[in-house]
Amino acid sequence: MIRGQVVNGVMSFAEKDTMMYKIEGEDLYLIGTSEHSMIGRFIDQIIPAQELPYCLTSYSPCFRKEKGAHGLEERGVYRIHQFEKQEMIVVCKPEESKQWYDKMWQNTVDFFRSLDIPVRTLECCSGDLADLKVKSCDVEAWSPRQKKYFEVGSCSNMGDAQARRLKIRVDDKGKKYFPHTLNNTVVATPRMLIAFIENNLQEDGRILIPKALQPYMGGQTEIGPKK
């Protein structure tokens, strides 16, 4: 859970209404992503320039209203109100944010491809960006069932918008400025599970286990249907 001051500092006000669950009678919200908690830890701080960049990651439960979501994606585990997700954030100098943005979304692409899941990136046009984002792209995995790509993660460069709202500053030899913040979904487990099963499912019901996962499965190479 996070406090309202942090929520207002890290989110678009429009997204806040459609995503966040508020605790009745408390100044607390259930987190929609651990990005908000990780950025919020720096609220009202002055960070020495030599300590940048901060690179943090978190695996946590996430809670979302998913208000306005309808259709086929409502079924199954694609769009649900509680799930678990690995998130990463970077707090860096303004001139370094473009480099970190490209590195972060590539991490997600490399992760999914290591599981033999075809993915692509789709850059969001400026008209689709929330009011705090400078640049954003979605990572999409191929769905053999739907015969199309579907979103499995997103990466955003927030510029100094979150830092301004949360009063996070950098002290560089007496010169103070706002850092840039970035966030990236490494993997949301329900959507990864969909992509993993659909892309590795065989006609006889077996699910092949990619080589990258076999060491964590005791050397097992496939999951067979129960007889």
Tally the beta strands: 14
CATH class identity: Alpha Beta
The value of Rg in angstroms is 19 Å
- What is the string of helix and strand elements? EHHEEHEEEHEEEHEEEHEE
- Domains counted in the coordinates: how many? 1
Topology (SSEs and partners):
Elements: E1 2-3, H1 4-10, H2 13-19, E2 21-22, E3 28-30, H3 34-40, E4 46-48, E5 54-63, E6 82-92, H4 97-114, E7 119-123, E8 135-143, E9 148-157, H5 161-166, E10 169-172, E11 175-177, E12 180-188, H6 189-200, E13 207-208, E14 222-223
Parallel strand pairs: 4-10
Antiparallel strand pairs: 1-3, 2-3, 5-6, 6-12, 7-8, 8-9, 9-12, 10-11, 13-14
Helix pairs in contact: 1-3
In short:
The protein is an alpha+beta fold and 227 residues long.
What does this structure look like?
- The structure is a single chain.
- This protein has six helices and 14 strands.
- The chain is an alpha+beta fold and 227 residues long.
- It has a single domain, classed as BirA Bifunctional Protein, domain 2 (2-Layer Sandwich).
- Strands 5-6-12-9-8-7 form a six-stranded antiparallel sheet. A three-stranded antiparallel sheet has the order 1-3-2. The chain has a three-stranded mixed sheet with strand order 4-10-11, with no helix packed on it.
- The longest helix is centred in the middle third of the chain and has 18 residues, at 97-114.
- The mean pLDDT is 92.
List keywords for this structure.
six-stranded antiparallel sheet; globular; 33% strand; alpha+beta; 227 residues
